[in-house]
Amino acid sequence: MESAHEHNTWKDWIEAHGPRLLLCARQWTRSLADAEDVLQDAFVRYWRHQRQLPGDPRALLVTSIRRAAIDLARRDDRRLAREERAEEPAGAGQTLFQHLPGEGDERRQEIEAALQRLPAEQREVLVLKIWQELTFEQVGIALDIPANTAASRYRYALNALRKQLEPLCHG
Q1: What is the overall mean pLDDT for the chain?
Q2: Contact at 8 Å (CB) between 128 and 134?
Q3: Domain ranges of the chain
Q4: Measuring CA to CA, how many Å separate 135 from each of 47, 141, 155, 159?
Q5: Would you give the distance in Å from CA 52 to the centre of its chain?
Q6: Where do transmembrane segments lie in this chain (predicted)?
Q7: What are phi and psi of 59, to 5 degrees?
Q8: CA gap 27, 115 in Å, rounded
Q9: How large is the C-alpha radius of gyration of the chain?
Q10: Dihedral sign of CA atoms 6, 12, 15, 18 in order
Q11: Residues 133, 126: Cα–Cα separation, whole Å
Q12: Above 80 in pLDDT, residue 109?
């Protein structure tokens, strides 16, 4: 049974890190609602296994968020495939990745669009490094890659973003 002190400590931790973790989840999901679901699922998974998992809780939660997002995407893809097989070919032109209208100002939308154009491997390293403030070693653990690979992907992502966003800065 959890003590009141443990509950308050956990609640304080979630309040302190939850918003950044939600931003992280948002990069791996198709909507804010999906990101919130993935984050909740990741917290539950982590809570159930925390005593068995040594290491930094944020890095472990990021790993759990990523896995939950992958699981959700797979479930959604399977459901979509079943629905498409059941329907007539009327929905053939629809894309799986719909942009949500009205999600902030024009500059933020441009930055988010530039992020989405990055290869997934670069985007996830960038999100973990900047928004989660993880070290390259922690990023490597979360993504199951060497720290040097995480650092390289981070540099490639920054260079690609710089090239994409340069016209905005000078225009």
Answers
A1: 77
A2: yes
A3: 1-98, 100-171
A4: 23, 10, 14, 19
A5: 24
A6: none
A7: -65, -40
A8: 9
A9: 18
A10: negative
A11: 10
A12: no
The topology under which CATH files domain 100-171 is Arc Repressor Mutant, subunit A (1.10.10)
Write out pLDDT tens, residues 147-165.
999 999 999 999 998 888 8
Nearest to 103 by CA among 164, 33, 32: 32
Question: What mean pLDDT do residues 35-49 have?
Answer: 84
- Cβ of 120: how many Cβ atoms within 10 Å? 10
Position of tokens 């479930």? 75
Pick the CATH number of 1-98 from 2.40.50, 1.10.1740, 1.10.10, 3.40.50: 1.10.1740
Q: Identify the CA nearest to 130 among candidates 26, 56, 31, 24.
A: 24
Q: Residue-wise over 3-23: b if at least 16 C-beta within 10 A, else e?
A: eeeeeeeeeeeeeebeebbbe
User: Which pLDDT band holds residue 111 (cuts at 50, 70, 90)?
Assistant: confident
- Angstrom distance (rounded) from CA 17 to CA 13: 6
> Is-same-fold flag (1-98; 100-171)?
no
Q: From CA 95, how far away is CA 150, in angstroms rounded?
A: 30
Helices (H), 28-56: 32-49
